[in-house]
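W.,

You were right to be curious about this one. When I first looked at the sequence I had no strong expectations either way, so I just let the prediction run and decided to look at it fresh. Below is the sequence, 279 residues in total, followed by the output.
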Amino acid sequence: MKILITGFSGFIGKYLLERLKHATHELILLDISNGCDICDWEQVKHIIGIDTIIHLANLSFVPASYEEPKKFYESNYLSTLNMLELCRLNQAKMIFFSSYIYGNPQYQPVDENHPIQAFNPYAQTKVICESLCQGYNRDFKVPVTVFRPFNIYGKGQNPDFLIPTIIQQAKKGSIIIKDDRPKRDYIHVQDIVEAVCAAIESQNTAKLQTYNLGTGVSYSVKEIIDIVRAMFNTEIAYQCKNEIRPNEVMDTIADISKIKSELNWAPKIDIIEGLKMML
């Protein structure tokens, strides 16, 4: 297969390349890091002969989406539009990475039919991009697999994210957190990559399929901190400032029964093993 991967130098992309390096697929790698701006149609329209596009490239750090909303909307929308158009022209299938876009859950665990409610600018860009995917599937029969990952973590993640922040603070002997109550369904990046590989091999033709990526278990920030502190031989100081974020979602648990039955995928790395790997 000839597979185009956008955002290959990012967090998921690096793990995916490591996973695919022994496969027989031919890989086309596009990223701003190798001089390609996939938001510019002129830079990508010449690409032909591809079978699958794995679209990982996007701006994803939620606090930054409040600071630079125009940049987030433009980048995430245009890059997705261009990759869908390439799929249309090449009769290729798309694997699109969305996000948790369910807002405050009306029920738990959250399945793929749960109402969508964007609750920050980043999530709103993903809702818009999913709508693009639906349009290209409806009108041009582009096969699309949409992944909605809950909270991804793993070694090499942006240090500004929660778990890397906790670990780095622990190594310095003191953890200070704004709010330790919110619970999240954390999924290891290697399990994410295995889901991508399952989607590559899937024979779903001309369909749009949406799958949650999670574990079905949630942990509070405090529980993550307790696990990390227990992994050190020395005492780690801990302080919670009790600062509550606006629009905070207090708990998210993924229903992953659909992807288990349709792609035969299930997570293998639990939170303790995953945190040990990061340490």
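Here's what jumped out at me. Residues 2-153+187-215+253-268 form a domain with the Rossmann fold fold (CATH 3.40.50.720). And, maybe more interesting for your project: The longest strand covers residues 144-149.

Coffee later to discuss?

I.
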